């Protein structure tokens, strides 16, 4: 007579192993049952063909989530600054006859300079999730460190000026909230395109890439771009680093959603738009 002992053990949250021990021949047969989602690693891939900015990241993530303008504004409200209410919408945009999406941002003018410590306090007091708060804090710390080196100051002396401060708070906090909402497990970004040119900013005319961008580009792969002028903003690079993006080629993935995102600038004789793709790793 054959005696069989059936045992089930929990290996971890995703694995269950069933052991069948047959005394007759002292052999143990093991059958593993895996939950279907064990291998489903949520993957975000960005191919920054014409560059990246904070508002492009905001637009891309919001479009992948397919949220309404009202839902997007509720996320903006969670930052806790009334002045940002209803300042951003996602809308279709055509460049050279090709449709993509773009963030339409209308920020009010504010006579206010904010230090990194003040912005950190705004983030801490906000209604963002704890993970989104940490992403946003890390992003601003990276920005403040880069600006401090560029201007020969201490981090605590760095000020984010007027509209630039509001724009950064909007882009960074909302992008971090959207990224957390997407629950991304694998984040891949292509090499960042750089171009020569001239950038006009609060300090006058500076060469492209901007000094703060160069500080943040340490250990980041870059490639040449055929256009002229600014392609990558400091906010975008700081966000990529804070969100732990890996840089490389297209990953093996099953694409479930994709979107072409345009920034505010149109480059002549060069590709425009950056691709955002969401899916499962293979």
Can you walk through the features of this model?
- By secondary structure, the chain is an alpha+beta fold.
- It has helices at residues 54-65, 69-77, 116-125, 130-151, 162-182, 211-216, 234-242; strands at 4-10, 15-22, 27-34, 42-47, 88-95, 98-105, 113-115, 159-161, 186-189, 192-194, 198-201, 204-207, 222-224, 246-247, 253-261, 274-281.
- α4 packs across α7.
- The chain has 2 domains: 4-38, no CATH class; 40-281, no CATH class.
- The longest helix is centred in the middle third of the chain and has 22 residues, at 130-151.
- The strands form 6 sheets. Strands 14-9-4-16-15 form a 5-stranded mixed β-sheet, covered by helices on one side. Strands 1-2-3 form a 3-stranded antiparallel β-sheet, with no helix packed on it.
